[in-house]
Structure formats: C-alpha cells, structure tokens
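Notes from hallway chat w/ T.B., transcribed later so I don't forget. T.B. wanted the structure written out for a chain they're using in a teaching module, and asked if we could keep both sequence and structure tokens in one place. Agreed to drop them here.
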Amino acid sequence: MSKFLIFGEEGLGCTLAYRLMIEGEDVKMCIADKDSRGHLLGIVPHVDSMKEGLNWVGRSGYVLCDDEGDVTGIRKAGYKVYGNNAVCKRLEDDRLFQLETCKELGFDISNFHPVKSLDEAIEFIKKHPDAYAIKQTGTLPKTFSFVSKEDDGSDAILQLNWMKDSEEYKLAAGKAAFILQEVVSGSEIAVSAWWCYSDWLRLDSGEIITTLNFEHKKSLDGDLGLTCGESGTIARIEPAGKLFQETLEKLTPYLLKHASDVCGCIDANCGVVEDGTPYLFELCVREGYPASLLEQHLLDVPIGHFFANVIDGKQGEVEYKTDWGEVLVMGSGNYPHETTTDEHVGSYKDQPVFCEFNEHLWPFYVRQDKGEDFYRVSDHYEYICGAVYSGGDIRSTNESCVAELKTVITRDPIYRLDVGDKVVKERIPALAKLGFV
C-alpha cells in the first residue's frame, strides 16, 4: 500500500482518487476551491490544507496534481509529484503562447489572430471575412466558445454582439481575451502520451504508449447544445503511430529543455484534412476529464502501480486493453452551464443520487452525508458520474454505457445517447484511409 495525495483547485481527480481507494491504496484529497470541497466528501478522506496533506503523505508517498497547477515548489521540497512546472502551466493556460510555441516547433496550425476585445474581434472579421473559431483565453466559461459555419463569419459576428450584452461577459470583460482562428474542416481526433522527465513513457518493447481519442464537446445528441468539458469520449490505447509522430513528437526537444522536471499527460487535439495534414486545434497539458477515467479503465494494470512508476521515472511495466472504449457522462439540472457569478439560479445542488458505484460506474462531483445511504450532488456544475466500458464494437460499448447510466436515479438526468455514432460513420473511415487509425 502506498500513500497518494490528490490535490488541485477544483478536485477534478475524483474518479482517480476513488479508484485508488478501491484498489486498496491510502488516499486523501486536498481541494483548494472552497465551493468544490464537497467532491467525494464522506467517500474519500479529505485534508483541509496542502500543508496538512504534505505532512500526511510524506516524501515516500505520491502527490498527484489533478489540474494545470505549477508544482515546482513541492517537487523541489523533495516530494514525489505528478504535475506541471511554470512553462507547462503556461502552455495550458495561455492559448496564444501555446499556439505560437507549437507553430515554431513545426506543428501545422491554421491562421490565428489574438484580439483584446469583442469590438476588435468584430472589426477584424468584417475586414477579413472567413469562418472563425472564437476561443476564450481569459476567465469566461467554455460555453462562450463558438465555431462559425458561415464562410463570411457573419454568424461569429452575431455571437460576439450577443456576448457584449451578456452579464457574464460584463463581469469578466477586464480579464477576458480571445483568439480568432480560421476554421479547418477535417476529421477531429486527438492523441495523448505521458511525458516522463526526459522521454515519453514507453512499453517494455521500447515503443511509446499513446491514447487515440475522440472527444464529444457538445452536451446534447447530434452535437447540439452547449459546449462542455466532454459529454463522452471514445478512446483506444496503442503504440505511437502516425498522429503522434506528426504532432506530439515535435514537442520532444522543447520538453527536454523546459520540462525535464515534469511527469504528466499531454494531449494534442487535431483536425485531419483531406490531404492528411493534422492541424493542431489545441494542446491539453494536464489530465483530461472524463477521458482520463476511460484511460484508467483501458490500462490493464493497477492505477496506483502505474502512477507510482511514472512519478518514479520507470519505463515499461505497462499493459493495456486493445479495444476501443467509451466513457459517458451524466449531469443534471443546469449541466453544463457555467457562471462567473455566485448566483446559481435553478441549481440542483444537494439533490439525492441513488446508485451503486462499480467497475463500470464511477463518481464525479458527489458526496455522501453521514447516516445517508445515498449520494448528493456536491456542487453547482452538477457533474454526477461516468459510465465506462470497452470490448466489442463502439456502438455496443455505447449501449452498455447508456444502460449503466439508466440505473442511476436522480432528478433530471442529462446524458447523450449517440456518443460514438459520428466516430463510426465518418471519422474512423476517413482517418483509416489516411493511415491515422
């Protein structure tokens, strides 16, 4: 048994903490944000401060940062830490810095234009009509992201004008900035790998281990609804192939120079166009959620053993399932609405959730109050749980995930029924012809 301290701003690593506990590891959570401290409360032990957590875990245990935070100070103090340094944190937080850096490293990236205000963005599109993706780089929720469908960007202008009148934008206007990026029409796919101080994590064979994944960013069937973290993900673990070689591999010299003290996960989300060029949309320089839950399911080794080896810098000793798998998210009520205010009107926080967590059903933002034999939604985002399956074909895996979520009883459950449909019908056939899957 090893000690694991899971910490971060919002407690994103709930499923990781719960899985480690189920495996028999000694686990505690430390959550900085006071509004998020209810996550897994009464289920996984918590500590009230980072100081208390470090005193408990000691220098023989393991500290896992579940967000993009800079853990350099903890690492220098002699603790065994999974997480970023200042450069990696900036790559995650600052989209302009990320895109400029990746362009210098030889990534294929569509033209992008930083703007400091909505008025500047509107004027730019009027002068340079095109279809643009509006990407926020400040404090606005992801629900403000928007992708043009009109070739002249007229729909983007309408969206920007609406944002000007939004109370959410007015509250964040002094801190919010945007990037306008020309839309690339292609098959979207991502590849992730684990960076381990001086190399990518490798199998016993010496091959780099990667995860191919297809995100589903919209909250409703048919890719409709609000943009959310992910409503579901399809993924497969495999040795590094063409997509890794044309994207993440180009990061290697940069990471050797700037991240030789870092171990963590890096994901490149791309759109592969008809000629086979993978255009980078964005890097995710941290664990991605809920994709990491599926990744943990597909890794055919104890997760405590896996993360201990990564932190200790050990290569090999990695086994995995070869099937495609799926994770499907359940929310409720206002999910996936986010807000920059403290006025969570209509929130279903504290509502009861009746279910039995198991190897296919894992908790996100729930708690268990003393004496109750059910769970409660623990915050206003109402991100309840995730179902995960692999084996068989993608459609049957989706059916298994849906059936699992149907066993959960709560008010106004929200989840997609069509995760993987476009992957099967469109993305995999197109990408297979180009040698990417």
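Follow-up for T.B.: The longest helix spans residues 421-433. Might be a good example for the class.
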